[in-house]
């Protein structure tokens, strides 16, 4: 997998200027799927991203790939407590700003600016305005929601009622899409008050939608009473039933 990323980087260096966008565009789906890459491969590609952005070539797919690359690197640096973590945040801010300069309605880019701001200075008024723009421009974008929803639920008490409603509707959409593994981790990382709010937001969902959710919650050590769901031994029985 790392070889693939390095090959993309080499291609980006050798292509004519008008074609340099292609390797970066190809990078986006691989990063969205959380394909693992070694740190040196990410750094090599990031160096080439600097050159690409300096050329001011406006390709949404390519700039998005570069911004996703910066996001992965910045997140790793923060998690590791690296000394250059702030430099990584600044690089992500530049990438997101370049992306918005090319297409100002990309919710991912606005969320990236929010993430940079909140990691540097906390949930400031500016940070919350970036989050509001992210929901305003991309309220129903699945891959953005997977990155955004957990972070957004942490500031439910600070956002406007409209943004709060969007965050909770996005949370419901994750469950309606069957993304139970992701949703269970969101609840596991939430404090008690936020967890109660998220569970209450499930009121009105079709019970069949939530039928399998308790088993995923059990995997992260949670046993919660969900709206409209009673203990149903058939779920466990159905899972153990032999194929025939």
How would you characterize this protein structure?
With 244 residues, the chain is mainly alpha-helical. It folds into 2 domains: 1-103; 128-244, no CATH class. Helix content is 71%, strand content 0%. It has 14 helices and no strands. The protein has helices spanning 2-14, 21-32, 39-54, 60-80, 85-102, 107-121, 125-137, 142-153, 161-176, 180-189, 192-200, 207-210, 213-219, 233-240. The two termini are 38 Å apart.
- Helix fraction? over 70%
Order of helices and strands: HHHHHHHHHHHHHH
Distance between the termini: 38 Å
Number of strands: 0
**What's the mean pLDDT score?**
79
- Helix tally equals 14
Radius of gyration: 20 Å
Please mark out the parts with pLDDT under 50 across 5 or more consecutive residues, or reply none: 1-22, 233-244
What is the general shape?
A: globular
Beta-strand percentage range: under 5%
Structural classification: mainly alpha
Estimate nothing, just give the exact number of structural domains: 2
Main pleated-sheet profile = none
